[in-house]
Specification:
about 130 residues; mainly beta; seven-stranded mixed beta sheet; globular
């Protein structure tokens, strides 16, 4: 079992930055592919970014490419999402997710249903 706890959300003006963190407890963190998703009010959950379990492959949604950066620190059992040049349309609840030893994560971004564990989410609000 893995527990994921997100933090770092908040209110920021357009053009600003936030760094989300997702701390994991439980099983060996380095064996997990990790992802970030978000859900805005009235919309479906959507993919934001992902990192393969080896850390060698990273993926981004087109809407955040060039602005967001995913990284992982296996020693700290934490995955980060650095978000720069935020836009009002980035407003959502952001969730991190973990998938155990997914070979597929090395070659593509996993779908939401392929993740085994989810955090409770952290709110990001970007004002115009």
């Amino acid at each position: 079992q893995v527990q994921l706890v997100e933090s770092g959300g908040g209110l920021v003006q357009a053009g600003g930055s936030l760094r989300l963190s997702c701390a994991a407890s439980g099983r060996t963190f380095s064996n997990y592919a990790l992802g970030w998703f978000r859900q805005a009010p009235g919309k479906e959950r959507e993919f934001v970014s992902a990192c393969s379990w080896s850390g060698s492959s990273k993926y981004y949604a087109d809407s955040v490419k060039g602005r967001f950066t995913i990284s992982r620190d296996n020693a700290k059992r934490t995955v980060y999402l650095q978000m720069n040049n935020l836009k009002p349309e980035d407003t959502a609840v952001y969730y991190c997710a973990a998938a155990l030893r997914s070979a597929a994560s090395e070659t593509r971004a996993l779908k939401s249903w392929e993740y085994d564990y989810w955090g409770q989410g952290t709110q990001v609000t970007v004002s115009s």
